[in-house]
Amino acid sequence: MSNETPHSGTSSPRSRGEGAAPGDRLIRSGVIVFAVGAVATLVTIAPLFLGADPLPSVAYFVCMLMGVGFLLAAAGLLRSIAAQRREAAAARAAAHTGPSIPPSG
To answer: For 51-60, how does the pLDDT look when each residue is reduced to its tens digit (9 = 90+)?
Structure first.
């Protein structure tokens, strides 16, 4: 016996892998930019711990990509949430405005 809700047979294109959510590209690019910033942060901070000469100021500005990547990913997440809410609202509206059947009698 299963505790799962039965599958209705229909699914959105995203769950089948046919399309991408509106914010997916922003999230992916945000993760990449964040990773570049994180690596730049490690490379920039390493000389300070190793006793070597610090890197030029440009290296410290590249570290700011970590925050930019986080903001891009957050914007993509918010865009995806907004799209899902719009889809849910449209589905609710469609369910409430279905064809009316007059009562027989």
So the answer is: 888 888 888 8
